[in-house]
Amino acid sequence: MRVAIYANDGKKSQNVKKKLLTRLKERHFALDDLHPEVVISIGGDGTLLSAFHHYQAQLDTIRFVGVHTGHLGFYTDWRDDEIDDLVISLESDNGQSVSYPLLDVGVKYADSPSKVHYLSLNESTLKRISSTMVTDVYLGGEFFERFRGDGLCVSTPTGSTAYNKSLGGAVVHPDLEVLQIAEISSINNRVFRTLSSPMIIAPNDWITFKPHGSNFILTVDSETYQGRTITEIYYKISKKRIHFAKYRHNHFWLRVQEAFIGIENED
Ligand code: NAP
Ligand code: MN
């Protein structure tokens, strides 16, 4: 099996990486950063997010494994003190995997006739800082609302526990192939009206934003794009998915409970 390790710069992650490298070499794994079959990310959810973007051209042939250094994450199944168990699981690997939906972001810029595509694991936001963002929102090609406010966030199911959750969006079970739109401070009064609640969009539907004016900030996960005038953005569920090597069962709602509520007994 060809394995790559993708660690963040933190001291702890670097130590875990060293230990894991030693174990993998002892067990005669092939280390291959260019064309790995399994990518082991060491750090937090943010590290897995950058590992995903680093290898996003090879999603069909890669399975990810997340090791967390620090608090429990959503893309990380393994604690840093479980390296030996992880290596045992890798040795007896028989291709087990679980996959999750990704967000396809298609952007039409004013300076180019063709669309630019970005792939998102968590979410993509459109924002404006300089003055109120005004954007027409279409669902399935039909006009839905004229949004005024700070911005809009479109998230994947696995991204629903990230920025989306801070915006009051729902936590979505990742077995569901849906997208969610959450508002960032919409203006609502007698003149301006938006739905004002998060929306869950069906698998075959698509979302279009037609922003008015310029100076928009587009984010895709940890990346920010600004400077070019955007005329339209399309969001739909991508044909691509992210695959994780699945060696143990994780109950999604328990993970949510552990991350946000804490282990408090019901006595
Ligand atoms: P960051 O500022 O270090 O990340 C913000 C927090 O989001 C970190 O605690 C990160 O966990 C956590 N996170 C990332 N993906 C998550 C997920 N799918 N479910 C639950 N928590 C998640 O920046 P980053 O590490 O590069 O992560 C980028 C992400 O930050 C963006 O995709 C966005 O979702 C999130 N973000 C959130 C807000 C907000 O809540 N107001 C604002 C901007 C961006 P780790 O510490 O484990 O990395
Ligand atoms: Mn982070």
From TrEMBL:
Cited NCBIfam families: PRK04885.1
Gene it is expressed from: nadK
Gene Ontology MF term list: kinase activity
HAMAP family the UniProt entry points to: NAD_kinase
Superkingdom in the source lineage: Bacteria
Keyword vocabulary terms for this entry: ATP-binding, Cytoplasm, Kinase, NAD, NADP, Nucleotide-binding, Transferase
Any one Pfam family match given in the protein's UniProt record, by short name: NAD_kinase
Active site: 45
Family named by the database record: Belongs to the NAD kinase family.
Residues binding NAD(+): 45-46, 122-123, 148, 150, 161-166
Protein name: NAD kinase
